[in-house]
Amino acid sequence: MEFKERIISIQSKPLMSSRIEILQVNLGYKCNMACKHCHVEAGPYRTQEMGKETIDTVLSVLRDNDINTLDITGGAPELNPHFRYLVSEARNIGRHVIVRTNLTIFFENGMEDLPEFYEKNSVEVTASLPYYIESDVDRVRGSGTFQKSIRALERLNRLCYADGSSTKKLNLVYNPSGAFLQPEQKTLEEDYKRELQRRFGISFDKLYTFANMPIGRFRDYLMRTNNLEKYMEKLMNAFNPKTIDGLMCRYLISVGWDGILYDCDFNQILGLNLNKDCPQHIKDFDYSRLSKRNIILGEHCYVCTAGQGST
Phi then psi for 285, rounded to 5 degrees? Predict the structure, then answer.
């Protein structure tokens, strides 16, 4: 059954946004890494990048609307030349800022002081760490990645991240290394906390577990290994209607590097624009219309409703 039909069979109406609590902004697809599961297909040679004019429009939207949180992503968002400007200005107007980082970016030229910049601006850091075992992480993200990630987390801890403060939150993100679904989040979080503390003395606040999206590099992997059909069947069979109320697309708007608006970051990569009755670009932002929109759905949406869901 198509995903949109599944939704209607449960709630007798299309999936709609509830409100806009988060403005999620993709600053570009350039990254210092090229991870095997990356749905954005980010890498060092990607050139797409949000310009200063669009960033200023993002800041205007935050000033003019009751949207408390700016969620910054990429690629490695820190590689955008206007990244620090966006963070600082968003904090100056009183918005909570989340940055999704790969941690290894801290070791690139000119990025060495990023942990201190985050601490100064009370940035909530959400960091990718696919597992707590070195070989598993390096297999997906490249040799030496795990050790760099551990050193980056140690630096954040020394700056009092994950010390229980509401202004210094440090979250980790788990992704499966293959064509299977994520384990139960609470249990895996306990494993991460125990192992990272025991082996490295590292603390963090929360673990988010996400299944891999069958798009980008991960879709290529599924096709090469003849696992695409099996993986999609697994997602469909794991559909959980209890996840619908918490789907992230119901509470955010995704802004592409070129200012085009989407229901989520995944729709952005697939080129699935907002419903045609909605403003299509950040310069035409209309909170009232966007917060009551019908959400554009596809078969990839089964990822966000599988098991505990990805919310």
Answer: -55, 130
